[in-house]
Amino acid sequence: MKLTAKARYAVMAITDIAVSSKNGGAVSLSDISVRQAISLAFLEQLFGKLRKAGLVDSERGALGGYKLAGAPAKIHIGAVMRAVEEEIQTKRCGDTGIGCTIKGAKCLSHDLWQAMEDHIEGFLDAISIQDVIDQRFPQICPELVTNGLTANEMAAAE
Amino acid sequence: MKLTAKARYAVMAITDIAVSSKNGGAVSLSDISVRQAISLAFLEQLFGKLRKAGLVDSERGALGGYKLAGAPAKIHIGAVMRAVEEEIQTKRCGDTGIGCTIKGAKCLSHDLWQAMEDHIEGFLDAISIQDVIDQRFPQICPELVTNGLTANEMAAAE
DNA sequence: ACTAATTCCGACTAAATAGGTCAAGTATTA
DNA sequence: TAATACTTGACCTATTTAGTCGGAATTAGT
Known about the structure:
Strand content of chain A: 5-15%
CATH topology of the largest domain in chain A: Arc Repressor Mutant, subunit A
Strand order of the largest sheet of chain A: 1-2
Number of domains of chain A: 2
Number of helices of chain A: 7
CATH superfamily of the largest domain in chain A: Winged helix-like DNA-binding domain superfamily/Winged helix DNA-binding domain
Largest interface: A-B, 55 and 56 residues
Radius of gyration of chain A: 20 Å
Helix content of chain A: 40-55%
CATH architecture of the largest domain in chain A: Orthogonal Bundle
Distance between the termini of chain A: 34 Å
Structural class of chain A: mainly alpha
Largest sheet of chain A: 2 strands, antiparallel
Oligomer: homodimer
């Protein structure tokens, strides 16, 4: 899961469809291109992947375009981002062992990166297109539990 | 806050100091270089920034090296990563307005990226070097609150 | 049938970034 | 005084990013 501009454009574009579609009709990429200021050629590249991932359906020909494959509340940001970025998990410490495996043992920070990735992924998978439209996002969890103390308690203990 | 290999190396190296230091003595970069399989030249680059950020103290001369500026429990991963990556927040949607501001209004996904960044930053700031050594990481918060429903409740409601 | 609008597909590319290296020092101490 | 260690900044290079380009296939309206 990469957090790049490409992934952001994909979310913007697919959100645009949810907002702009009339009666569930198809929305053309040229319309999205104008509204979101993203080049048509780049949108074509993105929507090829979104279609293959089953997130949108296409209608070819004149008056064609794309429509969401499901309800906005059922399409999650994480899925959109994974669709347009080929590598699900990139360059994770330990894939090669270089700089991670020391005499056969996992490095201390290996699990840290895994926990971080899980956290980011969990966050993005918890948000649907509908949530974005409604501007409804998860707040930071106030009780990040580490060894029985909350983050706030740990800060106070310092 | 960028999540690159450079930032990971910095965390690995600073964790190495916490683990390898004898009686709080300085640890040389050449030792870290060997143990963590990171080039000495690259470590020098990283520790220059860590020192300026006040996360480590240096001792020059023979038998010199670096030591942590504070207790491992007081140095947090987020601070380490911010120290080695110059831009705190990069490429955020809306900095230029291109592809974000449409007729003067913020794009729908603008706040999404902000919420995501806050979430990642909160996660990393909650973890100290000591936590990494003890392999103690925050679990995914089971109650991601969005509009009063937890993530689980929302999934069930779909 | 013809035309215009649109998706589909793969190759290509310019610019930026990541991830380093190298050279030439300066400071400290065994 | 030699060895070790830190300091600084310029430089380098492969990869990734963020696209473009050209053309083919498909469909709706005239």
